[in-house]
Task: structure prediction
Amino acid sequence: MTQRLADYHYHLPPERIADRPTERREDSRMMVLDRSKRRIEHRNFANFGEYPMEKDLVVLNDSRVLPARLHDATGKIEVLLLQNITPLKWTSMVKPGKKLQAGTRVEIAGTTATVVEIADDGTRLLEFATPPDLERYGKMPIPPYFHRQADESDKERYQTIFAKDPGSVAAPTAGLHFTQEILSSLPHAFLTLHVGAGTFQPVKSENLAAHRMHSEHYALSKETASRINAAKERGGRVFCVGTTSARVLESQPEGPLAERSGSTEIFIRPPQKLHRVDALLTNFHLPGSTLLMLVSAFAGREFIMEAYAEAIELKYRFFSYGDCMLIL
Result:
């Protein structure tokens, strides 16, 4: 099985990138892949509820996206808050980095931040004089490939309707398609994985074995663990909504699931198999991304690349605000 980065690249015409969501969440198209029959069907997300049965369980990530993109008082320095270490300390990405050397102070988010430390990867540890006012000054950290600034509409649409626990700097995008009506009609449970910028970090090594994932915090509740165990015991399937939900479950030790919280650096790629996930709802992912490798591990690289080629030909919308794929 290939371990070469080049085998996970594909050409995507720029016009296939969705920089705005559909008018209604449920209006997205949904490509359905049947792994056992190697068959592709074309549906709409509004049809998703036809697939989980009563004994199945849909598992979703309820992490809430922080309005974590900030600009200083001059508008020339951009800060993306990554992780809250203490109420006043955050690890952050900054642009341009040369303006924020160790010891530098900057007026931002209604307070003052000081660069305490610069990590080897270029991220900064910032200490704020008072907690930054993200609700007033922060912008949603929409992806750079949108080629636009976040606006008021992104506050609602770049957030799932069930978002609860704040901590992500990118949306768990497979969940963006759900409406309250669709969700309430399904047997479902929640876990939490706070999506960090490392999830979308480009793979720079041609040999995938050399790539290291950034750590992301997760929490699996006793209730959700019990409900997944019960679904499995009655012969039901676990439908993971998003690669984030899948990564949490696949990070757990063997045996019945139990309440657990911690961090995961799991990097799922062929020829690995997913052992706790029976079906996966996911968006279309960037070429060469670890997310594309995860879905390739689940459905097979050749089948996934065939499906992506068909999606491009049929003008599916790609990436965070794009259409979705249900892999059975």
